[in-house]
């Protein structure tokens, strides 16, 4: 979206807000002041992005950037991953304060593989270059992860046992 389009859309929305407030709008004649929409656009938006590639077969404590901050927007091409790999990813995601996650399994399968505290934002049909049709699901996190000082849950205890065996 360029600056001209953004400015035009902001102006349209502001005009709709003014008309709604003066004519009673859809509130049955009740006049309500709508919040003003302020749009911000930066020409250097790409400087705010940080891409990181990681291997699902190499478990991590959490998904974080080089400064240790949790990665907030995650895309995982997990369409062809095993249930075990997806379970490993879910275990790491449960310890990461992500905000938006996009991947290729529906909510029921995603819960079965262990992801917690999420809701579906949207499902979008896609098609591969080879003509295969499938869906990508976008989820948002519903609860912040806070490291526990209590003993781990049974699924986390399994992770601890595996790490102990690997040591």
Structural overview:
- This protein has two domains: about 5-45, no CATH class; about 50-145 and about 155-165, no CATH class.
- It is about 30% helix and about 15% strand.
- The radius of gyration is 22 Å and the shape is globular.
- It has a four-stranded mixed β-sheet with strand order 1-2-4-3, with no helix packed on it.
- It has helices at about 5-25, 85-95, 105-110, 155-165; strands at about 75, 100-105, 120-125, 135-140.
- The chain is α+β, with helices and mostly antiparallel strands and about 170 residues long.
- It contains four helices and four strands; from the N terminus they run H-E-H-E-H-E-E-H.
Strand order of the largest sheet: 1-2-4-3
- Proportion of strand residues: 15-25%
Tell me about the biggest sheet?
Answer: 4 strands, mixed
Radius of gyration: 22 Å
User: Can you tell me the residue ranges where pLDDT is under 50 for at least 5 consecutive residues?
Assistant: 21-27, 160-167
Estimate the helix proportion, in percent: 25-40%
The arrangement of helices and strands along the chain is HEHEHEEH
From the helix content, strand content and strand pairing, which structural class follows? alpha+beta
Q: Number of helical runs?
A: 4
Terminal CA distance = 51 Å
pLDDT averaged over residues:
77
Query: What does the overall shape look like?
Result: globular
The quaternary state of the protein chains shown equals: single chain
According to DSSP, the number of beta strands is 4
**Total domain count:** 2
């Amino acid at each position: 979206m360029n600056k001209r389009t953004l400015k035009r859309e902001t102006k349209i929305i502001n005009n709709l807000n003014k008309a709604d407030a003066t004519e009673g709008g859809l509130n049955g004649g009740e006049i309500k002041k709508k919040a003003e929409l302020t749009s911000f656009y930066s020409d250097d938006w790409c400087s705010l992005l940080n891409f990181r590639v990681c291997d699902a077969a190499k478990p991590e404590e959490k998904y974080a950037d080089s400064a240790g901050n949790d990665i907030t927007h995650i895309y995982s091409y997990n369409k062809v991953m095993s249930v075990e790999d997806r379970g490993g990813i879910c275990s790491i995601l449960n310890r990461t304060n992500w905000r938006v996650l996009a991947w290729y399994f529906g909510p029921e399968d995603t819960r079965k593989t262990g992801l917690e505290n999420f809701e579906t934002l949207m499902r979008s049909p896609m098609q591969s270059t080879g003509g295969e049709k499938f869906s990508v699901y976008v989820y948002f996190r519903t609860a912040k992860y806070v490291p526990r000082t209590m003993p781990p849950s049974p699924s986390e205890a399994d992770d601890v046992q595996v790490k102990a065996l690997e040591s």
